[in-house]
Amino acid sequence: MIVDVWAQQSTERFMKAPWLDTLLRWTGKAGDRRVTGGEATLNAMNEAGVDITFLSAWHGPQGSLISNDEVADMIAAAPSRFRGLATVDLNDPMGSVRELKRVVDGKTFVGVRIVPWLWDLPPNDRRYYPIYAACVELGVPFCTQIGHTGPLCRSEPGRPIPYLDDVLLDFPELVVIGGHVGFPWIDEVLSLARKYPNFHVDTSAYAVHRLPAGLVDYMRGAGRSRIMFGTNWPMISPAACLAKRDALELDDEASALFLGGNAARVFGL
């Protein structure tokens, strides 16, 4: 089984975001602001043998970019292939808690994702804390972005230490998945993974043959149960991410866990 834990089915609002220009240029798609539909997403999944894709909702300081209800409609069109990651408005803490209780059921929506650079707020900001408590109560992981940003925004909110270190100390029951690898702070990422059993990493936004060497070494050994596959579709396709996966030199167990086993376990698929 292959599970992609980070993807989006874009909306017109998402594709008109001003920060998207730099990200598209980075990924070789400068000026391509076409909305990606469900058929294109399924075709990309089928090309690479991806069984299940997690579709992220997006909300930023200026409002909704991909709403939870829009993600729910996308899932309803292919319920065996898609799961959802809900999002909320950090400026409305109690409304956020109510929204998560409304949509997150652990079956269709299997987690929550908030992107710190979009808000320019690191994850130890007090506005996140009601959301962490809700995730623990609902029994779902909290997914976030770690490392530098493709868009021309500050990267500091994605630095793992001290920000995620504080969160993992304050919420020992909270399961956290850090997406986009965490470069250039790989040593910080690995130190958190070794320190906290509920912290995981996904490889979204990277073709797997371009992953940092330290992360790959960890995947081959003690960290084989802690790393998950992701793409960041439509910015990068599953096929492009996996084209040179033999370069990872993972044994059969580590490969199966990375591609889908860890996601299935952590998200209760």
Gist?
By secondary structure, the protein is of the alpha/beta class. It has a single domain, classed as TIM Barrel. The protein has twelve helices and ten strands.
Explain what you see.
It is built from twelve helices and ten strands. An eight-stranded parallel beta sheet has the order 1-2-5-6-7-8-9-10, with helices on both faces. The model has no long low-confidence stretch (mean pLDDT 94).
Features:
8-stranded parallel sheet; two-stranded antiparallel sheet; 16% strand; globular; TIM Barrel; 10 strands; 269 residues; alpha/beta
Architecture (CATH level 2) name:
Alpha-Beta Barrel
CATH class group: Alpha Beta
Number of helices: 12
| Uncertain stretches of 5 or more adjacent residues | none
Overall form: globular
- Strands of the biggest beta sheet: in what spatial order? 1-2-5-6-7-8-9-10
Distance between the termini: 11 Å
Task: Tell me what portion of residues adopts beta-strand conformation.
Answer: 15-25%
State the secondary-structure class: alpha/beta
Helix percent band: 25-40%
The CATH topology: TIM Barrel
CATH superfamily (homologous) name: Metal-dependent hydrolases
